[in-house]
Specification:
Blueprint: H1 9-24, H2 37-49, H3 51-54, H4 63-74, H5 78-87, H6 94-97, H7 101-118, H8 131-148, E1 155-160, E2 166-170, E3 175-180, H9 182-189, E4 199-201, H10 204-212
Parallel strand pairs: 1-3
Antiparallel strand pairs: 1-2, 3-4
Helix pairs in contact: 1-5, 1-7, 2-4, 2-5, 8-9
Organism: Acrocarpospora phusangensis
Protein name: TIGR03085 family protein
InterPro entries: CHP03085, DinB/YfiT-like, Maleyloyr_isom
Length: 217
């Protein structure tokens, strides 16, 4: 495979997540509270293909319309919805019109949702990611740490396992140091604390409060 035709990490995660959704079927659990695999597949299609409804994912007063659109997609045949996600957005959407937007926005989105499905199943184990994807995740963590942990009730320092690299995510006392591989720190930062394999060092009460905090975007 030449460099010109090599898939981006976003494309690889899209393909792998699509395969997993197809293999599991529509009624399996995910780490997204209250969502089955059918719900998650519909969400992924809405955010890429329904420009009119995607804003409600982040904007509260628009959320009812987004939910209605997503519920409509969830009611369609599941293989069709997964196929729509696998094929990607139409060319007239922002993802099709803006070069590089897919890789910029979807690499982390798809990786997190891929793990939402994987880690909701029994006997899961962390994946070994390509070194350059690990590095990319760490860069995203460094850039977004303060936003991800803005609602944390305690201070947070992220430490990349096996290195001296660290970043202050919230500078207050008491503080908890999270140590792990970049993907594990990312999942913790996105509110998947119970399914992220990290070491937490700090005051016991501070650790407990951080584990229950609402984190993420």
């Amino acid at each position: 495979m030449t460099q010109a035709t090599q898939r981006t990490h976003a494309q690889a995660e899209r393909a792998a997540l699509s395969d997993l959704l197809d293999r599991l079927g529509p009624g399996e659990p995910t780490l997204c509270a209250g969502w089955t695999t059918a719900d998650l597949a519909a969400h992924l299609v809405v955010r890429e293909r329904r420009v009119d409804a995607a804003a409600g994912i982040a904007v509260k007063f628009l959320a009812p319309y987004t939910r209605s659109v997503q519920d409509g997609l969830s009611a369609r045949p599941y293989p069709e919805v997964v196929r729509m996600f696998r094929e990607g957005p139409p060319r007239w959407t922002p993802y099709g019109l803006v070069p590089g937007l897919d890789a910029l926005v979807n690499t982390v989105e798809f990786l997190v949702h891929h793990e939402d499905v994987r880690r909701a199943q029994p006997d899961w184990e962390p994946r070994a990611l390509p070194a350059d994807l690990d590095d990319l995740i760490w860069r995203r963590l460094r850039a977004g740490a303060r936003m991800f942990f803005r609602k944390s009730p305690v201070g947070v320092v992220l430490r990349r396992a096996g290195t001296d690299e660290r970043v202050g995510a919230k500078m207050t006392d008491p503080a908890v140091v999270l140590t792990g591989e970049p993907q594990e720190l990312l999942l913790f930062a996105f509110g998947r604390q119970d399914h992220a394999r990290v070491a937490l060092d700090g005051d016991r009460d501070a650790v407990a409060r951080l584990m229950k905090a609402r984190l993420g975007m």
